[in-house]
Automatic annotation (TrEMBL):
InterPro entries: Calycin, Nitrobindin, ShKT_dom, THAP4-like_heme-bd
Spans through the membrane: none
Organism ancestry: Eukaryota, Metazoa, Ecdysozoa, Nematoda, Chromadorea
Native organism: Oesophagostomum dentatum
Name by which UniProt lists this protein: ShKT domain-containing protein
Pfam families: THAP4_heme-bd
Amino acid sequence: MTDYIMKSCKKSCGYCGPIEPKYDLNRLAPNLRPLAFLVGKWRSEQDGKAIFPTIPVFTYGEEIEISIPSDILRAQRALNYT
């Protein structure tokens, strides 16, 4: 097995364990299925570098999560972005 599979299996195929409801594509509304590939955690592997004239140079990373909202919500179906 590759490192990718070891880190990502539970969120992608579910073979190694249950899928968290917020990532379970079976719960995705039909009108959102074209965006299914976005569901999950996305993290930059390269450190960003910020350069400003008044503060020291620093590096940073970014991570976003796109998930399926709880079924408790009664609003129009959408994806959560955090």
